[in-house]
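Worked example

This section walks through a single chain of length 303. The input is the sequence exactly as stored; nothing has been trimmed or padded.
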Amino acid sequence: MSTYLLSLLSYLPGVSLVDGAIQSFLVNVLKTGPIPQHISFVMDGNRRFAKNNSLPLKEGHRLGAEALVKVLDCCFRVGVRDVTAYAFSIENFNRKSDEVDTIFSLLKYKLAVISSENQLCDLHGVRIKIIGNRSYLPEDILTDIELVEERTSQHAKHTLFIAFPYTSRDDIWYSTTQIANRVSNGELDIESVDEKLYERNFYYETDAAPVDILVRTSGHTRLSDYMLWQCHQDSVIEYPNTLWPEYRFYSTWFTIFKWSYFKTLIIEDAEIMQVKKLSRADVNARYKDLPKLHPPFASVNKV
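Given that input, the structure is written out below as C-alpha cells.
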C-alpha cells in the first residue's frame, strides 16, 4: 500500500486515535535521552513522488508541504529547538514558471496556516524566520512572509527557519559584502574580522544553534549548495532513501532516535574517560606526600 493511501487512511477516526497514542508514547521515549538542538532538512523528492504515483506535479508539492507540518510537529514535540527547511534554492528559478508559482503559493499558504491562531506556531511556541535573499521575491510574497514573521515574533521556545530563496554561496557572499561595506565606511577595523563576525552577518544572524543533523531525502547524496558553513565537525548528515512526501512523523522520530542513541554512547564514553582521569588524579594525590627516596636498606646478615 502506498504512502499516499496510508495518509488518506490516517484521517479515519479510529486509525488517527491509535496513531496519536503511538506517537505520544514514542515522543516520551525520546525525551528520556539527549535531543538535538538544530535539525535541517533538504526536502527533496516531491516531483518524483508525484510521477511515481501518477499524480499532478502540484499534488506532489502539496503533499510535501503536508509532510513538513508532520515533521515539524514531531521535532517540536520532542524538544528540538531549531528547525531549518530548505524550501527553495536560488537555482530553482531555472524551473518552469508554473512550478515556481506553485511552490510560492503553497509555501505562502502553509506558512499562513501554521502561524494562524491555535495552530502549530501557537501550540509549540514557534517563531518563523525567513533566511535567504529576499531581493528575488515578488512584492506580494515578500509582504506575506514578513507578516508571518511579525505574527510569530512573540514566540521564543522554538524557531522555524525557512531557507527561501537560499544557497550557501549566496549566504557567504552576503556576509562578505556586509563586512566589506562596514570596513569601507570606517565602521569596522579590518583586524577585527574573524569567523564569529562572519557568522553574525549571515542570514541566520547567529539566531540558530549549530546544526546537529542535516537530512536530505530521496537518496541523493549531495548538499545542493546548502548549509556548507553551518554544518560543523560533529554534524550528522543523513541521506534516507525516502521521498519527502513520505518522510513524516515516524521517519523523523527514527532519525532523532538514532542520533540520540549514538549521542548517549558518546556521552557515556566521555564520562568513563573522565572517571579514569579522576581516579588517576586521586591516586596521585593520596601518595604525593610519600618520601621520594626509599628507606635505608637493612641487612639481616649484620650482627
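What to look for: The radius of gyration is 26 Å.
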